[in-house]
Design goal:
Chain B: InterPro entries: AAA+_ATPase (IPR003593), ABC_carbohydrate_import_ATPase (IPR050107), ABC_transporter-like_ATP-bd (IPR003439), P-loop_NTPase (IPR027417). The complex is a heterodimer of chains A (345) and B (512). Chain A is mainly alpha-helical. In chain A, 71% of the residues lie in helices and 3% in strands. In chain A, helix 4 packs across helix 13, helix 5 packs antiparallel against helix 6 and helix 6 packs antiparallel against helix 7. The C terminus of chain B is likely disordered. Classes of the chains: A mainly alpha (345), B alpha/beta (512).
């Protein structure tokens, strides 16, 4: 059975060989590795060209300003790994944040309002999931409908920016905590929002890699029919990913509103696409079946860092940001295609 | 033979799909410590019966008893929990996951910190060792494995549950001889430990080698249950197809009697046709009324030559002449307009359009040739369909069903009908009989012989060399991406002649 053994499996993994095996990136991880390389490359380039990038305060701000995007990207990783898509997350942020802030201003208990903000996301995700799983609506269409619904509801509630009172507990989630007091304001600063994002990433990582539901997410992305034949709970899992994505969008609304201090119906337009871009840049295949939640975090940070570099440069018009985002995205999609082609051989 | 205790008793099972009765009062009894073969043509209802047993399909009437207890079907997960494990074909695994994940998913060993991957890999390695795959790294990605290893991984997935009932649905179709023996040995081992086994395969030799008992289905009906020792090959085949095996033998002698002599200009002439990295420049002539078989191993260039001739791939060297006119085939459509029709070996990906009905699939190519501005009228369509219903023994009830719901043999016939509707002068059939049952094979082979009689030049490609020998007037032998010779078929030519020819060509030197 000569076909059964690969050359690497024949030789015992000893010494250098074992090391080489560990270092050699697997095809699956290649796009994610590339995202890390690009991220590091951007930092090195930024430091060389503009200076003051590898600094505590710059990197702290990068995390603070992108915590909500990281949370969204984590949610979309679940959906995209199953081979689906969720276009509603940007609109969920709008409806959730506007509703939450209005309730706080109306005298609701702020903690209860925050919980409700997350639950609004949960509700949107649940409806998307039901449409997709039980009414067999294409994920693209189902979540597109939810996107219009969410945006419309937000606009019906208010078209003005709704300010959060400065003394509200919601604002405390965006409060900057100085962890390390460096010279010349070069401090390590975190917000509770960043900690929430970190917790979300850790929980998602655990769920995707260490639970049956998580592995089922990957199996569905590989082939839904196979997953069903293997006896895996396909319906339940597909519902779960949209509920997770929706709930995380609600959570992202909390984190973002806490930082900004106000909510508006036009908040989050196009963020679903940023989150999808972050996920793809981070190495998740749009066709499903492969991807890493940590890759999506790197992808979100690549996008955030790009904005920082463009601001620092000063010469690049801000309008060019989307062109550069598109370019990076294209490179990564092409890279994925190359990987898929290699896999097929 | 000791009569084991019945583990599964299915009686009067009736299943309908959108009003069509696909199983009609079928019985099946599986006993512990016994290998039971489920036999029947494609479309006889074998997969449906398995679906009814594992609970993936709803049963209209009849009952399923497991250890004497009546049970309503409730899905794969539940039947797995009851100890009924199914080995599906290797394509039903998850390509992105590792071997260990594919084996263990759904039954992972879990510790305090979620899934314990180390324990899972160890358990996987244990099961793989039983299958003779001790050296396969459970951490490898499934997509990096050959189809044969994937199939054994699918078996491992079923074994990991220590099932009481094991269902093997075509488990050997992607395995080589040695691997088949390994699998059969494992299956026998399980039988001896008291597992009830249901074995489904198209390979009659394997069935006779391993089965203790057989249940035969035909057209959704129960034909009978037999002890394997009470049946011989011919009995079984005639029970399966309701037709005499003598028909196949007659076909061979008919073909031999059909004396073909090349006269006039060739219908198709290829000179130095080739494509870098795919096929070395090859010369070939096809004449009217001739069946030319391409023989060679997979990857020998037989499919590649067919694809170049059928316009599915563009040649980068050589010339192709059809009826004396030089043609440049840029696409299969261009080939069709030059009266060359190609039936690809990838039936599902490149052949049928799954969501369309059989009728629409048949009409497709002809409609494409005529152009969209001149649609075929319903009447013309019906006339066309009528012709092929009869010629290919298609069932009228299938004709308006989505083709993906039909059996492989029926799909292959419909693909053939689609090509014939274009009235080709050259018909290239790449593996038209792979994975289909004997009845459909016979229908297709008969049709090929008939077409040649009507003056079509037919290229017939099959891994089953007996079929190539049975049908061809002339056999082109390919190896390592080049044509190594041609044989004129006759009573002296057998499968061994071709095998020797391929084997003798060790140094790759052309030998005529």
């Amino acid at each position: 059975m000569s076909t059964l053994t690969s050359p690497s499996a024949e030789a015992a993994p000893t010494g250098i060989r074992a090391l080489a095996k560990r270092v050699t990136p697997q095809l699956d991880t290649l796009p994610t590795a590339a995202a890390v390389v690009i991220f590091v490359g951007m930092i090195v380039y930024g430091e060389a060209a503009y200076g003051r990038i590898v600094q505590f305060n710059t990197l702290s701000n990068l995390l603070i300003n992108n915590a909500h995007l990281v949370i969204l990207a984590v949610g979309l990783t679940f959906v995209i790994v199953t081979g689906g898509i969720d276009l509603s997350v940007g609109a969920v942020i709008a409806i959730s944040s506007v509703a939450g802030v209005m309730l706080i201003n109306a005298g609701w208990n702020p903690w209860l309002a925050m919980l409700l903000m997350v639950l609004i996301g949960t509700a949107f995700g649940t409806v998307s999931g039901i449409l997709i799983q039980y009414f067999h609506v294409q994920p693209f269409i189902a979540t597109l409908a939810m996107m219009f619904l969410g945006r419309g509801l937000a606009s019906m509630l208010s078209t003005e920016p709704e300010r959060v009172p400065d003394d509200s507990p919601l604002r405390s989630l965006g409060e900057q905590l100085k962890i390390y007091d460096g010279p010349k304001v070069n401090d390590i600063v975190l917000t509770p929002g960043v900690l929430i994002a970190a917790a979300v990433v850790a929980a998602a990582f655990f769920m995707l890699h260490r639970t049956r539901t998580g592995r089922t997410v990957y199996a569905i992305g590989g082939s839904e029919q196979s997953a069903a034949l293997m006896g895996l709970p396909v319906a339940k899992t597909k519902m779960s990913v949209y509920i997770i994505s929706g709930s995380l969008a609600g959570l992202a609304a909390v984190v973002y509103t806490a930082r900004l201090g106000s909510a508006q119906n036009i908040t989050g337009i196009g963020w679903e696409l940023d989150a999808i871009a972050a996920t793809v840049i981070g190495g998740t295949l749009l066709t499903g079946g492969a991807g890493f939640v940590l890759g999506s975090v790197v992808g979100a940070l690549v996008l955030g860092l790009m904005n920082v570099l463009i601001t620092r440069d000063g010469g690049i018009p801000p309008e060019a940001t989307t062109i550069i985002t598109g370019g990076i995205l294209l490179v990564f999609v092409l890279l994925q295609r190359a990987v898929l082609a290699r896999r097929r051989e | 033979m000791k009569l084991g205790r019945p583990v599964v008793e299915m009686t009067g099972i009736t299943v309908e799909f959108s009003g069509v009765r696909v199983l009609d009062r079928v019985d099946l009894t599986l006993r512990s410590g016994e290998i039971h073969a489920l036999m029947g043509e494609n479309g006889a209802g074998k997969s449906t019966l398995i679906g009814a047993l594992t609970g993936t399909l709803p049963i209209l009437a009849g009952e399923v008893r497991i250890y004497g207890e009546e049970r309503t079907p409730a899905g794969v997960a539940r039947s797995r929990a009851e100890g009924i494990a199914t080995v599906f074909q290797e394509t039903h695994l998850s390509p992105h996951l590792t071997v260990a994940e594919n084996v263990m998913i759904g039954n992972e060993v879990r510790g305090t910190f979620g899934i314990d991957w180390k324990a899972n890999r160890a358990r996987t390695a244990e099961v793989l060792t039983r299958l003779g795959l001790g050296d396969l790294d459970p951490g490898r990605s499934l997509s990096s494995l050959s189809p044969a290893v994937k199939q054994l991984v699918a078996v491992a997935r079923a074994l990991v549950l220590e099932p009481r009932v094991l269902i093997l649905d075509e488990p050997t179709s992607s395995l080589d001889a040695a691997e088949v023996q390994t699998l059969l040995r494992v299956v026998r081992g399980l039988r001896d430990r008291g597992v009830a086994i249901l074995f489904v395969s198209h390979f009659l030799e394997q069935v006779f080698e391993i089965a203790d008992r057989m249940t035969v289905l035909r057209e959704g009906r129960f034909v009978g249950e037999y002890l394997a020792d009470d049946l011989d090959h011919a009995d079984l085949i005639s029970k399966m197809i309701g037709e005499d095996i003598a028909a196949l033998k007659a076909l061979r002698s008919e073909r031999l009697a059909h004396h073909y002599s090349a006269s006039g200009d060739p219908t198709l002439r290829a000179s130095a046709l080739g494509r870098r990295g795919t096929l070395d420049p090859t010369d070939l002539e096809l004449s009217r009324g001739e069946v030319v078989g391409f023989a060679g191993l997979h990857g020998s260039g037989r499919t590649e030559l067919a694809r170049l001739m059928g316009g599915a791939e563009r040649a980068d060297s050589g010339e192709l002449w059809v009826d004396g006119v030089r043609v440049h085939l840029r696409s299969p459509g261009a080939a069709l307009r030059s009266r060359i029709a190609l039936s690809t070996e990838n039936l599902r990906e490149e052949g049928i359009i799954g969501g369309l009905t059989a009728r629409e699939n048949i009409v497709l190519a002809l409609q494409a040739m005529r152009g969209w501005s001149r649609p075929l009228s319903r009447g013309e369509q019906s006339a066309l369909i009528e012709t092929y219903l009869e010629a290919l023994h298609l069932s009228p009830r299938d004709i308006d069903r989505p083709i993906e719901e039909l059996s492989g043999g029926t799909q292959q016939k419909i693909l053939l009908a689609r090509l014939l509707a274009t009235r080709p002068h050259v018909l290239i059939l790449d593996e038209p009989t792979r994975g289909i049952d004997i009845g459909a094979k016979l229908d297709i082979q008969r049709r090929v012989a008939q077409l040649a009689g009507d003056g079509v030049a037919v290229v017939f490609i099959s891994s089953q060399l007996e079929e190539v020998v049975r049908l061809s007037d002339r056999i082109v032998v390919l190896k390592d991406r080049e044509k190594i010779g041609e044989l004129s078929n006759g009573p002296g030519v057998t499968v061994d002649t071709i095998v020797e020819m391929i084997a003798a060509d060790l140094d790759g030197a052309p030998e005529m």
